[in-house]
Structures are given as structure tokens and as C-alpha cells.
Amino acid sequence: MLATSSRVALSLGGQMGTHMSAAALVRLQSMAASSLVRQTGSQAVRASPLVVGRVRTASTGVLGGEHSGRGEMLKDSEGHEHQLHRSSPAAERAAERIAEGAADTPHFRKDALAHPLTGEVVEEQRQQKASYSLPHPIWDENSANTVSITHYKPLNITDRMAFASVSALRFVFDTASGYKFGLVDEKGWLNRVVFLETVAGVPGMVGAMVRHLNSLRRMERDYGWIHTLLEEAENERMHLMTALVLRKPGPIFRSTVLFAQGVFLAFFTCSYLLSPRFAHRFVGYLEEEAVKTYTHLIEEMDKGKLPLFTHMPAPPVARAYWQLGKKAMLRDVWLAIRADESHHREVNHTFAGMQRNDPNPFPPGH
């Protein structure tokens, strides 16, 4: 039993060798050997020199030790040579990056009632209601009211293609919906918001899925992009949930949404697989148009052209999600949504200018 334990402990050290320094690995081996001596007393139970040598060599292979052309050769206590597998330099560098990198997101939820390992309970957290929402920005009054319309000037052919695609989509949709001719009342505005938000939730989920699968297939870190893209997808979905409280689409409208979402899903998935830079720039320009749309909606309300919206209180789901006051009105909701869209605009334009393996500059909830 003790001999088996020694092999397990030392083998575990070999498996962990790619994630710790050589000095730490030596200390682990010494502790394991000392523990065995204390437990066995005068019994002749010792770790095999071959096992210890294999652990040490496996660790130095990743930490930059020198290798011969035919791999590492080890001798056991009887003088027999054993050849070990040699990792490629690329695999060793990838292992170093994974071992030295920080976690993409905290492993445990901050709002957990008890820590899963220690069982420690925080009373303030116990009193909070459970929330299934991912971290997202909460806008103060100043931030929500000072959102401005901006435009990123295309710098290369990829940017110009993305901008042309968004401009064409907007022209077609505005013409088909009557928005281009000003034929929009409260019902028309809700139809527009519902339709656009069913499509707007696609890019974040597609981007997160593609990067997640790339991370698995390439066996490398994501560098924090996935959580930001998932937050964006959920945020757009909450825009839709808010609008659905005010407007219940019929079967024809739902069929149109189903068709549009399928076409856009195929288009954006192919775009992200072929050129993530184009895809993020496309979303950046799409969010520029969203900011214009919600700014126009708020201006129409302020001019008194949408009286049903003016005196309508904020839906409960919106008050909870954006942490609005009990007296919040629907206008406050549109302001929060517009601020979200401006945030997505900046995030995607930033991602479009970054390399695939650059660390995400946006922390969770930013």
C-alpha cells in the first residue's frame, strides 16, 4: 500500500511538472520521499530511481532543459537504459504559456451562498436574491444621458467591406419597415426593437462559440475574450426580453424572425470563421447604427410624438436587470439600452484592431 502511494505521489509530481518550477518540483519529491521514510520506519520501501528520474526529466523538458536528438535516456538502479518521449519546442512553449497565464475568470461564483471548499457563508451574500445574469455594466444617470453618436472611419478594405455590409442591411430594413419614411408609431417602434434584438444577440454567441472551440482544438488559452462575448449576447437578449413585455409578436412576425435569424446566423458564422477582424468590425458598425436608432427613439419621445411611451413605467424585468429605481420610466430603459449599445460598439471596434491571442482588455462586467 505504501509503495503504491509513493508511486502515485511521485507520478502526480510528474503530471504537475508542466505547471510548477523545477525548485518546487524537487521540494515535492523530497516531501514525498521523507513522508515514506517516516511512515515505513526501518522497512526497505524506497521510491524507484527510475521514477524519480522520469519526473525530473519530464519537468525540465517543459522548463527549458536540453534534449538530445534521440530523446532523454535514463538508467534505473540496475543499469538499464530507458528512452523517454521528447516534446516539440512548440508544445513546450504552449505549455509554458498555459502554466504561467492567469485564469480567464474566477472559478467560483461571487454570489455563492457558501464557498464550495471551505463552507464559509457570507451573511450579506445570503440576503441577496439569486441572479442568473452574467456581470454587466450598470449605468448611472450621467453615463446614460451623455452617450454620443460616433463613427469609426474605415482604414482598410476589411473595414470598408464591413461598413458597406451594415449600410446595405440598414437601407433594406429601413425601407421595408417604413422607418425610412417616418411611418413609425409606438407599435412600429416595438416591432423594430424586437426584430433587431433577435438578430443582435447572434454575434456575441457565435464569437464565443468559435473561440471556445478554437481553444479546445488548438489546446491553448482564450485570453479572456469568451466571457465578454457571452455577456454581450446575454445583454442583447435582455433587450429583447424587455421589449417582449410590451409587445407580443404574432405568428407571421415570428416566422420572419426565424428566417432572418437563420440567414444571419449562417452569414456571421462563416464571417467569423474566415475573418474575426471583419466580424468584429461589422458588429462595431452595427452597434453604431443601434445607437442612432435609440437616440432617434428618445428624441421622438421628448418631442411628444410617442405619448404612450412617455407615461409608461419601466417593466419589472428592466428595473431588476439595470438596477433602476422603483419610479423609473420607460425612457430610462431606452437610455440604458442605448448605453449598452454604445459599449458594444467600443468593445467590438477594439477587438477588431487586436490580434487573436491578445489579452482581453475588458474585465468581467465592464
TrEMBL record:
A GO MF label: metal ion binding
GO biological process terms, semicolon-separated: alternative respiration
Protein keywords: Electron transport, Iron, Membrane, Metal-binding, Mitochondrion, Mitochondrion inner membrane, Oxidoreductase, Respiratory chain, Transit peptide, Transmembrane, Transmembrane helix, Transport
Cofactor: Fe cation
Lineage top rank: taxon: Eukaryota
Primary location class: mitochondrion
UniProt GO cellular component terms: mitochondrial inner membrane
Pfam families (alphabetical): AOX (PF01786)
Subcellular location: Mitochondrion inner membrane
Gene3D superfamilies tied to this protein: Alternative oxidase (1.20.1260.140)
InterPro entries, per database record: AOX, AOX_sf
Known function: Catalyzes cyanide-resistant oxygen consumption. May increase respiration when the cytochrome respiratory pathway is restricted, or in response to low temperatures.
Family membership: Belongs to the alternative oxidase family.
Protein name listed in UniProt: Alternative oxidase
Organism: Vitrella brassicaformis (strain CCMP3155)
Upper taxonomic lineage: Eukaryota, Sar, Alveolata, Colpodellida, Vitrellaceae
